[in-house]
Amino acid sequence: MPLKSVIEAVREAMLEEMRRDEKVFVMGEDVGLRGGVFLATQGFLEEFGQARALDTPLAEASIMGIALGAAFRGLRPIPEVEFADFVWPSVNQLIGEAARVCYGTNGALSVPMVVRIPYGGGIRGGLFHSQNVEAYFCHTPGLKVIAPATPYDAKGLLKSAIRDDNPVVFLEHKKTYRLVRGEVPEEEYLLPIGKADVKRAGDNVTVVSYGLMLHYCLEAAEVVAAEGIDVEVVDLRTLKPLDKETVVESVKKTAKLLIVHEDNLTGGVGAEVAALVADEAFEYLDGPITRLCGPDVPTMPFAQPLEDAYMPNTEKVAEALRKLAAY
Q1: 129, 173, 215, 261: which one is catalytic?
Q2: For tag attachment on the chain, is the N or C end more exposed, with fewer CB atoms within 10 Å?
Q3: Right CATH number for 3-183 from 3.50.50.60, 3.40.50.970, 3.90.550.10, 1.10.599.10?
Q4: What's the average pLDDT block by block, 10 residues per block, for the chain (327 residues)?
Q5: What does the alpha-carbon distance between residue 223 and residue 227 come to, in Å, rounded to a whole number?
Q6: For helices 244-254 and 269-280, what crossing angle results, to 10°?
Q7: What is the b/e burial string over 48-70, where b = at least 16 CB atoms within 10 angstroms of the residue's CB?
Q8: Is 129 a known active-site residue?
Q9: pLDDT of 2
Q10: CA dist., res. 18 & res. 75, Å (int)
């Protein structure tokens, strides 16, 4: 299978779905003529024209509102929020409307919309180009939230999201765009939304993660393997709905759980995973449920030493694994 980057996988998924279904279109700031700030939609304007590669004004509330209306009319919009940090003006349309319409109309209206959001730090983006926003959307019934870590998962999950009749928040970690490469089949494939993936089997400790942090967890697992600690790495892939069964079964096997994410510690996805395991696998635990997350500061610092202090990394994950394995 050919090797692809995450951004190439994302682009291929959208291209294939737009060629398959004329109701699918992309919209957002710079997605047309420029091909997107990360070039995710490069060449789309030339192939599909302005009606399906729609450049918009710098107005996220209107982007989401127009996408919502298009979805009501049976189209399948893919609005792009240029950076996660800019999603806040669109929250009323996304959380207040899109998430609640199907329930509120007793199924008369659906919202087949995929909101692509580049997120995360580690690229010196500073205060307003590095935010992690997943917890806000995971709290909201009616939304599905996906955060892939690999090219294979990004393509297969994005294609499934585009075909889904519910609003999906599709989070793409910016640092993985060109840093992470992997095999992607040339033939068409879809991946199920709501299913985690065990990226590394192990018997001593379970580590649960997603996005960029997943790769640091895999690296850390190899580091501590040389010390006799056998780590199982679970990639959530979908944050909502959460694959409870895979997480619980892994913890029942290893009896120890480390949760790693870049987002702030308090109220994050890791808190939900911790509560799940406390509810359903408490009697199997041989150590405390442990979280390694971003600190509770308002946003990502710009200065390199401060950004490094904020971000979990391979060394920090390895140290947390050693401490937990020692129980």
Answers
A1: 129
A2: N
A3: 3.40.50.970
A4: 95 98 97 95 97 96 97 97 96 96 95 98 92 97 98 98 98 97 97 98 98 98 98 98 98 98 97 98 97 94 94 98 96
A5: 8
A6: 60
A7: beeebbbbbeeebeebbbbbbeb
A8: yes
A9: 87
A10: 11
DSSP state of 92: I
Q: How far is CA 144 from the centre of its chain?
A: 10
Size (the chain), residues: 327
Per the listing, tokens 């700031």 go with 29
Q: Are 81 and 115 in contact (CB under 8 A)?
A: yes
Domain ranges in the chain?
Answer: 3-183, 197-325
d(CA 281, CA 304): 39
Sequence-distant (≥ 6) Cβ neighbours of residue 100 within 8 angstroms: 142
Angle of helix 314-325 relative to helix 212-225, nearest 10 degrees? 50
E strand map for 49-150: 53-55, 76-80, 114-119, 144-146
Closest CA to 70 of 96, 52, 85: 52
Right CATH for 197-325 from 3.30.450.150, 3.40.50.920, 2.40.50.140, 3.40.630.30: 3.40.50.920
Distances (CA, A) of 200 to 221, 232, 319: 9, 5, 18
CATH topology agreement for domains 3-183 and 197-325: yes
Q: Which two tokens stand for residue 229?
A: 């600690």
